[in-house]
């Protein structure tokens, strides 16, 4: 290589401001572990309020089992939110996937196909969302997925006549309600399914090119585009995965209740969004971690559990979850301001 | 024309219309290897649009583009990149939420196979990014800083590093110094001089004549979407260039074979 023209260029062209580095490190710590602290706080609160019940293995397993379907919805929603998008249709997709399996079950379709059906239905709905968003040049995913929220719910009622269907086969119920004994401990199958899904999502987001491109699109779609990233194709993949996870979620819920019911998942998209936001992801895209989403789901699950154990009215639970969402995001904003001005 | 050294870029009669707006009306541009060409012009003269045509972001409505003497048609920035033409955008095309190394290698990440999976080789990417920053003598505390935590000049350096990371023959820069503090401007301009010594051609758009006179070999002016004047830096005064920007010129400054009416 030719010698460069200007030795003094070697200067501090990219040089972190010394004093801000400590606060950056502190922020990085909060970014990574802030929600986990919140989980610990929730745990401590629950323990203080209900010492004998909360830590019983039965109760813990219950929390996990009850939040498993929300965890999968939130995971899919997270992928979408990282791209600065939103998927309002996940609750309806869950119901459509669940009812499709239930209807086929009544028709006597064998269980392996029943188990694959929710995945296929969910992925199909997600693909339509992604293709509609990109090919029809929808101004915002809000609109495409709001439409899909209605379409999928309508279809759910159409195929089922709007009535619940029970009597799903034992194999399906095992997924939602069964246990596996690992090392002498009974672990709900649904919990294992959730953990495997989260681990795969982590691997995908952190260690594949498509995963990194998803973050890049959320950070600056223009930068992604001029870097040769196929933004539209990536978005279609993201919405399809979100649909797939919503379908999986529907399967777990069907298994847990042993039935399909057409009102399943109404409003669940909002719980999923709440979990993602509580978990530290940015609504503006490009920020957040799989671990954070997991913690966000746990916080919601533990909060519900605590309020249930303490016999707090369901309506108050709703109020409290709302307060927590606002408080957490407000705290996050304050923290960033403090870090930026120091 | 034909006898001279091969031109890296030769754009002939490029026109670009956006609906009813005509941004470019038959613009010519040439660039020799390792040459630094300054492009000036008033707001809305069409400078950015011309550069976006050269870098594949816009497709021209008409006109011809030759790279190393070969006619090309760029469908996207990716096509232009494959020909060694890179652009540093006016509105910096960096993802602030990603690390420095990720930005430098965005869209061109190295991967390795693990079983049936192809995973991003983060270590290799970090090493590549560091090596390239060293080559440009851009010193970083850590390539794992997020780009949004950097100052304007630091980001500009990352953007330039990104543009030159893979065999760039030409780097197009749209007002790279517009948002920078004085000290940082100097560093970015020196970086451009560095690129020249590496044989990389540069097209520099700037409203700051200081920048143009500090680094450029030649300057050309656009006026209302057309060629207006051009000259080697040694043969032109600042005041004349200011005149060009405002649409005034002496007859002898007219570019050869263009706009002499
Ligand atoms: N995408 C677009 N759609 C419609 N009109 C456009 C578009 N891009 C540029 N134009 C128009 O084309 C003309 C040239 O714009 P351009 O951005 O190339 O000017 P410029 O010389 O870069 O100006 P500046 O110095 O302000 O950056 C302007 O009238 C502008 O409004
Ligand atoms: Mg411009």
Notable features of this structure?
heterodimer, A: 342 residues, mainly alpha, 4 strands, B: alpha/beta, disordered C terminus, binds magnesium ion
Describe the structure.
The complex is a heterodimer of chains A (342) and B (261). Chain A has 342 residues and is mainly alpha-helical. Chain A has one domain: ABC transporter involved in vitamin B12 uptake, BtuC, CATH 1.10.3470. Chain A is 74% helix and 4% strand. Chain A has helices at 18-49, 51-54, 57-82, 90-106, 111-135, 141-160, 170-177, 189-207, 209-219, 221-226, 231-257, 268-278, 290-309, 314-341, and strands spanning 165-166, 179-182, 185-188, 259-260. Chain A has a two-stranded antiparallel sheet with strand order 1-4. Chain A has a two-stranded antiparallel ribbon with strand order 2-3. In chain A, helix 3 (57-82) runs antiparallel to helix 11 (231-257) and helix 5 runs antiparallel to helix 6. The two termini of chain A are 42 Å apart. Mean pLDDT of chain A is 88; it is low at 1-19. By secondary structure, chain B is an alpha/beta fold. Among the domains of chain B are: 1-29 and 63-73, no CATH class; 87-168, no CATH class. Chain B has helices at 47-54, 77-82, 100-104, 122-135, 152-164, 182-197, 209-215, 238-246, and strands at residues 9-18, 21-31, 36-40, 62-67, 70-72, 85-88, 111-114, 117-120, 170-174, 201-205, 218-223, 226-232. In chain B, strands 6-9-10-3-11-12 form a six-stranded mixed sheet, with helices on both faces. A four-stranded antiparallel sheet of chain B has the order 2-1-4-5, covered by helices on one side. In chain B, strand 11 and strand 12 form a beta hairpin. In chain B, helix 5 runs parallel beside helix 6. Chain B is globular. Bound molecules: adenosine-5'-triphosphate (ATP) and magnesium ion. Residues 18, 21, 23, 41, 43-49 of chain B line the site of adenosine-5'-triphosphate.
């Amino acid at each position: 290589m030719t010698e460069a023209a200007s030795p003094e260029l070697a200067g501090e062209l990219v040089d972190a401001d010394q004093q801000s580095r400590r606060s950056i490190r502190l922020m990085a710590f909060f970014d990574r572990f802030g929600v986990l602290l919140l989980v610990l706080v929730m745990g401590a609160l629950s323990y203080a309020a209900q010492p004998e019940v909360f830590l019983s293995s039965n109760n813990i397993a219950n929390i996990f089992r009850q939040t498993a379907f929300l965890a999968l919805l939130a995971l899919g929603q997270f992928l979408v939110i990282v791209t600065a998008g939103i998927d309002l249709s996940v609750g309806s997709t869950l119901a459509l996937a669940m009812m499709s399996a239930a209807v086929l079950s009544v028709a006597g379709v064998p269980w392996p196909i029943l188990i694959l059906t929710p995945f296929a239905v969910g992925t199909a709905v997600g693909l339509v969302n992604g293709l509609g968003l990109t090919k029809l040049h929808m101004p915002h995913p809000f609109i495409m997925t709001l439409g899909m929220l209605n379409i999928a719910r309508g279809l759910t009622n159409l195929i089922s006549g709007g009535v619940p269907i029970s009597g799903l086969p034992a194999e399906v119920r095992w997924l939602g309600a069964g246990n596996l004994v690992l090392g002498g401990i009974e672990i709900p199958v649904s919990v294992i399914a959730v953990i495997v899904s989260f681990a795969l999502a982590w691997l995908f987001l952190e260690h594949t090119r498509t995963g990194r491109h998803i973050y890049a699109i959320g950070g600056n779609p223009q930068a992604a585009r001029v870097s040769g990233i196929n933004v539209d194709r990536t978005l279609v993949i993201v919405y399809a995965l979100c649909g797939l996870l919503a379908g999986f979620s529907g399967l777990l819920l069907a298994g847990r209740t042993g039935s399909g019911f057409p009102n399943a998942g109404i409003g669940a998209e909002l719980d999923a969004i709440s979990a993602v936001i509580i978990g530290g992801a940015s609504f503006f895209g490009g920020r957040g971690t799989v671990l954070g989403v997991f913690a966000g789901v746990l916080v919601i699950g533990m909060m519900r559990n605590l309020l249930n154990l303490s016999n707090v009215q369901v309506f108050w639970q709703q109020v409290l979850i709302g307060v927590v969402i606002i408080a957490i995001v407000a705290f996050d904003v304050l923290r960033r301001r403090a870090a930026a001005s120091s | 024309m034909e006898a001279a050294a091969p031109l890296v870029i030769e754009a002939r009669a490029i026109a670009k219309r956006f609906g009813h707006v005509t941004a470019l009306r038959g613009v010519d541009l040439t660039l020799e290897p390792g040459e630094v060409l300054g492009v000036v012009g008033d707001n809305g003269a069409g400078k950015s649009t011309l550069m976006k045509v050269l870098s594949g972001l816009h497709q021209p409505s008409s006109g011809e583009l030759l790279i190393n003497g070969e006619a090309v048609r760029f469908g996207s920035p990716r096509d232009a990149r494959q020909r060694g033409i890179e652009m540093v955008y006016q509105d910096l095309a960096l993802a602030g939420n990603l690390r420095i190394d990720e930005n430098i290698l965005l869209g061109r990440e190295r991967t390795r196979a693990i079983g049936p999976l192809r995973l991003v080789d983060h270590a290799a990417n970090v090493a590549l990014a560091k090596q390239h920053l060293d080559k440009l003598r851009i010193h970083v505390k850590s390539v794992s800083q997020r780009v949004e935590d950097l100052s304007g000049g630091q980001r500009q350096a990352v953007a330039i590093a990104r543009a030159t990371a893979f065999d760039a023959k030409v780097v197009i820069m749209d007002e790279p110094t517009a948002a920078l503090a004085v000290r940082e401007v100097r560093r970015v301009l020196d970086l451009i001089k560095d690129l020249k010594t590496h044989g990389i051609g540069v097209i520099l758009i700037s409203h700051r004549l200081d920048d143009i006179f500090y680094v450029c070999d030649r300057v050309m002016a656009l006026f209302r979407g057309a060629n207006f004047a051009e000259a080697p830096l040694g043969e032109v005064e600042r005041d004349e260039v200011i005149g060009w920007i405002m649409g005034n010129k002496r007859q002898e400054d007219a570019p050869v074979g263009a706009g002499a009416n």
